[in-house]
Write a structure and sequence with these properties.
Blueprint: H1 2-17, H2 32-56, H3 63-73, H4 75-87, H5 96-122, H6 126-170
Helix pairs in contact: 1-2, 1-4, 2-3, 2-6, 3-5, 4-5, 5-6
């Protein structure tokens, strides 16, 4: 959980503190709460979808193991991208290729650690891990769809009840 918190902090500092040459965000339009919710949502969706998938595919890991492995997998983002915020103030636009390359390396390294964490946590072979990761991404989409559908139905019920209440009150 500490690495998850540090990742959220790093991404927030990156949006606010990166030099203007490499920061495509308008500081007046940056909403850190959206970024926090996005990171927490993706992390939670991956962990839940992975647990659901691997519980059906004879995975050895428990939910606690999945959360720990995914938390450790986020560490390269903190390790590389946090110093890059400071470094962005010292480099020029011509050296920007290195800045973007290191950003890509951070996410690629984290992705590899997610893959290897899934493989080691559930004691899967390489092929089964690839299949599990693809099914986990599909599962994330299904969970997100069901969640959005649920909130849409709840909002429609609330609108319906408030309309009935207004009709009864005005008659």
């Amino acid at each position: 959980m500490i690495f998850l918190f540090l990742t959220i902090l790093t991404l927030a500092l990156e949006k606010l503190g990166t030099a203007f040459l490499f920061n495509g965000n308008r500081l007046s339009e940056v909403n850190i709460l959206v970024d926090v919710i996005t990171v927490l949502l993706v992390f939670t969706l991956w962990c839940v979808a992975n647990w659901c998938t691997t519980s059906l595919m004879d995975g050895k890991g428990k939910m606690k193991d999945i959360v720990i492995a995914m938390g450790y997998a986020l560490f390269p983002i903190v390790l590389i991208r946090l110093p890059m915020v400071l470094l962005s103030h010292a480099i020029t636009m011509e050296e920007g290729a290195f800045y973007y390359m290191f950003g890509f390396i951070a996410y690629a390294w984290a992705g590899i650690l997610v893959f290897l964490g899934t493989m080691m946590t559930h004691e899967y072979s390489l092929g089964k891990t690839i299949f599990t990761c693809m099914i986990t991404v599909v599962g994330m989409g299904i969970i997100l769809f069901i969640g959005l559908l649920f909130f849409n139905v709840i909002s429609e019920i609330i609108v319906f009840i408030s309309t009935i209440y207004r009709e009864i009150r005005f008659r």
